[in-house]
Design brief:
Number of domains: 1
CATH architecture: Alpha/alpha barrel
Order of helices and strands: EEEEEEEHHHHHHHHHHHHHH
Number of helices: 14
Number of strands: 7
Structural class: alpha+beta
Largest sheet: 5 strands, antiparallel
Mean pLDDT: 87
CATH class: Mainly Alpha
Strand content: 5-15%
Shape: globular
Radius of gyration: 20 Å
Low-confidence stretches: 1-58
Amino acid sequence: MAKISFLFTMRYLGFGLSILFLSQMVTQIVVTAATHNSSTVDAGMHLLVRKNKQTPTQFSSKTDFENESTDLIANVLYRKPSSLYNSMQPNGAYGINADWQRQQASKWYIESQQYGEQAIIGGLVKNDPQAIQGGFKIFDWGFAQQVDDGSFFMTGDRFHSTSFFVEAVAHALLVIQQSPHSKQYAFQVAKYKPLVHRAARWMISSKVWEQGIRHNRPYTHRRYLVATALGLTGKLTDDQELIQYAHKSIEDGLSLQRPDGVNPEKNGHDSSYQMVGVIYAQRWVMYFPQDTITPKVVAMINKSLLWEQTRILPSGEISTEGNTRTAGQEKGRSGKKVKGIDKKTALRGFAYWASVTGNQKWEESARQIAKFYYKMP
């Protein structure tokens, strides 16, 4: 396995939170990118952070698959792999799409098929072939709706919904390639690659892109979703144009972060969607460690998590006070369930970054959340 290491320096500016002030810091980052099976770049990272005269903190060197296998993610979110796919229909339709097939919903959304990603990665982590096959079946239903231009016929919220599915498929395939089961599922990776590539290319077609970006404008997290959907597909298929478009979306997202660390949603803060954007940004960092914009993404993630920590109550519950979207204002795609805190996303964002960085403060926040929402000891 060939390894390429390089060193770059990034400078963070101090920023203020109501309860915290961080002084200026200089961060040196050594990144190791490993080529896996001579075809896929595993974005293992080895980071060294120096904060003024403090003792250096060493970041762990792991692949995305290894970070997905970290304790809290593996043993809380992936604890029971069957739960990740057992609500799908026999043909693979998932969530509201199953209702649509039964004529109990007026629209279907390709984004509901994104949950094949969790089943596949959870199955890889827990060595559960049934979960992996369930995830493939969920993806298959989604791609069965794809038409010649790469889009998904009559899906609701075309651009945004498609970005969820594209990101999920590309991410799952990259994780498969890093896992011990890469050869076993090489056929499925080869099968899905051109399909997800075609969907990503549809996203950057001129009229689609312009309308999609305009529609996404009030939502910062969507910048990181779109960037990761296109970036990971570009990594998977060696399409540099997709990565260039991803870069545009990342830059746009970074420009929106407020001094206190908030990534605004509808002109305010939202402690649930804050973590959605963080998770997608973390995936960018893992797969594009050498990109010139990545140091800024790392800084954004750290600021975002520091702000999120101020929303965690002593009990471990995440406050929704002042949220612009998940304090009872919006409902999900079915129109029945009111949006609240996504506990899985909140736990994952802290636990994953703790695995990447080795930073105990992120681990403590993850365990605090797990204690409240999952009754962990």
